[in-house]
Amino acid sequence: MQLQSIHNDMLDGGISFCFTGYMSEEMLLGIGNTLKKKFEVDDLDRTTSMSMFSVFVEMVQNVIRYSAENQADDNDPAVIDLRYGILSIGKKDDRNFVACGNLVDKNDVARLSRNLSRLQEMDKKDLRRLFRESLKDEVPEGSKGAGVGFIEIARRAKHGFEFGFEAAEDDREFFTISAYL
Amino acid sequence: MQEDRILIEASEPCPRVDFDFGGNRFSLSGTCYPENTKEFFKPLLSRFNAHLEALSGADVVFELKLSYFNSGASRIFIQIFDTLEACADAGNEVAINWHCDDGDENMIELAEDF
Question: Is CB count within 10 Å lower at the N or C end of chain B?
Fold first, then answer.
């Protein structure tokens, strides 16, 4: 096992917490409680720690929901793969970050990319207005995958967020999103 | 006969629910971020909505005392507030008390959003 080198790579990248595996509500609760304690120990201010927690919840629930939406059969290994993801939390260049990655269907890439780019261009005021509007409206057709959850992430990421896609097996791409707080 | 009061103790990620239909006092407290918010609130809200629609000349108080809720819960709260607004329009006294901790800027801003 090369745990030592993985650990060193993580430290180099400023990662203080990392999870990879299948994402579930149980995992969300367990890691969530661990994170809350960690934020206390790190003496993060209340607003930052609540923002970090919120971004973490929205990111993980996005993965869980995305896999559920595409779930034809619980036992289909190809579908279970969609719950597979990576989550990391840390601090680099004086900015806290929460990052998450998971497999997505190739067909969803263009829409996700378009919607997230739109959020990236918005300032705090625009995001707030969009949040208020999206609460009232039913999620418009074609915006699945960039609902209130992503707006919440964009709002909390006071130093912005980045996202990207990389080719993966079959008709999948690996989607990553990193929020800086 | 239906119970006059629904009391569900908090169990993360679900909030403590205290819906007192007899006294028209309703409260959510703790944290609220279940993965499937709709499913959690569906049975509660069907009764809540029916109860509020039938009221007239009543005094209704809805209290939120949450330290954190997710975006899915936001969508539910807006529905609750719509129902409360309709209840007020129908001639009832309706108060919404949203408790925010001092220094919890996110929560104060969210309360304003609603």
Answer: N
